UniProtKB/TrEMBL annotation:
GO terms for molecular function: acid-thiol ligase activity. Residues 460-483 are annotated as: Disordered. This is AMP-binding protein. InterPro entries: AMP-bd_C (IPR025110), AMP-bd_C_sf (IPR045851), AMP-binding_CS (IPR020845), AMP-dep_synth/lig_dom (IPR000873), ANL_N_sf (IPR042099), ATP-dep_AMP-bd_enzyme (IPR050237).
Length: 483
């Protein structure tokens, strides 16, 4: 464990980079020394604003060198850094910003009372050693879940956990990460640095000696070609679309060496097809916001395995009674990682459900083979993964049932070429009422956001029942939309 707290390892990477380019943004190139300078000035600005250990700072930022530096500066002053994803529905954004937030930092038009990056950068750097104020047991960052339960849950990771992560420490990289790091010469960054995946691969790129390349328009394959990217994160739907585009009109992807598939499982045959069309570049990671990376399959691994968990990560497969099961037997995955969250911020009930005895209950189902490879086979949760975001069926059902036209609502998921999975709803009308599908979709969108809006809404007389007489959603078949 380093003598100085996080982000000492990241600052050391920037200092070692010196005049080497570490971020490209349009025509602008930022070196390690320049980015370190931005961190120092932004940390000074935050301290001048009275912010320090234990303070919550909401980062409402784009993807720029200053945004990356602001996140690191927040850690330098020992704050609780809260990345706010763009596009959050109003109610969810208000929920995040009311969770013990002392200040908002933005690079856009500031709301009343918000601090701007430009204002913070006006604070001069005193030239002395950059003081790091993080305390081991303080929460260093909150990474919010998708909000599919109605309000996003903030996974709380301490400074001690950030220090324990391997990302910025090459000597601690497991074999799959070493192989991936060797391909990160030009890592394409887009979307939001509030994304745990996007930010962590950015730090890994620094440690690997590569350059983060910002794509303001992340359409694939165009962005890969334009920026000569060697690596990028990709969701399952985007992977499928890229494979289809390459079959129809191949683009020059000769620079590409790694695509890190994130967010949801890839069907084995589709993964083989992707590797046939794109070459040996597809890495399939498995992890959760609560745990970080659990395992990663490299291009040489055989689908549908998600690879070997590193030695520093404990994975147990347990039966419904919590008893570990032997290799080859399916069960629920319980995971323990050095950098895992300690719980959900201000949510003791959900924390007790998921975090128990030092383990994280993933609520994913899988098994090991005799050689120790990990396989995923399903979920214990009633969730649908749309565009790599988990959306719980329950809140969608409750939103639909809030309509006076609806007596009962049931939601299921089904594979979808465009979004990985899609939400499909079945509704029983209230007596004498005729549901309006457009109004129901608007109701869900306003309450839970676009990702929860059903792709189809089917009116039924009653829900099918299982042998027990209870409603059985497994008997509901979504409409075939392949035609």
């Amino acid at each position: 464990m380093p003598a100085d707290p996080y982000p000492r390892a990241v600052l050391d990477l920037l200092a070692a980079a010196g005049d080497r380019p570490v971020i490209e943004h349009g025509t602008r190139t930022v070196t390690g020394a320049q980015l370190l300078g931005l961190v120092r000035r932004l940390a000074a600005g935050l301290r001048a604003a009275g912010l320090g250990p234990g303070d919550g700072i909401a980062m409402m930022l784009g993807v720029t060198p200053e945004a990356f530096a602001a996140m690191i500066a927040g850690y330098a002053v020992g704050a609780r850094v809260v990345g706010v994803r763009p596009g959050l529905p109003g109610a969810q954004a208000r929920h995040v910003l009311r969770q013990d937030i002392a200040a908002i930092v933005t690079d856009a038009d500031p709301a009343q009372g918000a601090l701007t990056v430009a204002e913070l950068l006006e604070t001069p750097d005193d030239g002395g050693p950059l003081r790091l104020s993080g305390r081991p047991h303080d929460v260093a960052r909150l990474v919010h879940t998708s909000g599919s339960t109605g309000t996003p849950k903030g996974c709380a990771q301490t400074y001690a956990a950030m220090d324990a992560a391997w990302t910025a420490r090459p000597a601690a990289w497991p074999p799959a990460i070493k192989e991936l790091a060797s391909r990160l010469q030009r890592y394409l960054v887009f979307g939001s640095l509030a994304s745990q995946v996007m930010m962590e691969y950015g730090v890994l790129t620094l440690a690997a000696g590569g350059t983060m390349v910002v794509a303001d328009k992340p359409a694939f394959p165009d962005a890969i070609v334009e920026h000569r990217a060697s690596a990028s994160v990709i969701t399952v739907p985007r992977l499928y679309r890229l494979v289809a585009a390459q079959r129809a009109a191949p683009a020059d992807l000769s620079s590409l060496r790694a695509l890190m598939v994130s967010g949801s499982p890839v069907e084995a045959s589709r993964l083989r097809e992707a590797r046939d069309v794109l070459g040996p570049v597809v890495f399939h990671g498995y992890g959760q916001t609560e745990t970080g990376t659990i395992s990663m399959a490299t291009p040489s691994d055989v689908p549908p395995s998600v690879g070997f968990p590193p030695d520093v990560i404990d994975v147990e497969i347990r039966d419904p009674d919590g008893v570990p099961v032997p290799a080859g037997t399916d069960g629920e995955l319980y995971v323990r990682t050095p950098a895992q969250a300690i719980g959900y911020w201000a949510d003791p009930g959900e924390t007790a459900e998921v975090f128990a005895g030092g383990w994280v209950r993933t609520r994913d189902l899988g098994h090991f083979d005799d050689d120790g490879r990990l396989y995923l086979v399903g979920r214990t949760r009633d969730v649908i993964i749309v565009n790599a975001n988990l959306h719980y069926a329950g809140p969608i059902e409750r939103a639909l049932a809030a309509s006076p036209d609806i007596a009962e609502a049931y939601v299921v998921g089904a594979p979808d070429e465009d979004t990985g999975e899609a939400v499909h709803a079945f509704v029983v009308p209230a007596a004498g009422r005729t549901p309006d599908v457009g109004s129901l979709r608007t109701l869900v969108r306003d309450r839970l956001g676009d990702g929860c809006v059903p792709a189809t809404i089917t009116v039924i007389d009653e829900v099918p029942s299982g042998p027990s007489g209870k409603p059985d959603k497994r008997l509901l078949e979504p409409p075939d939309r392949t035609g």
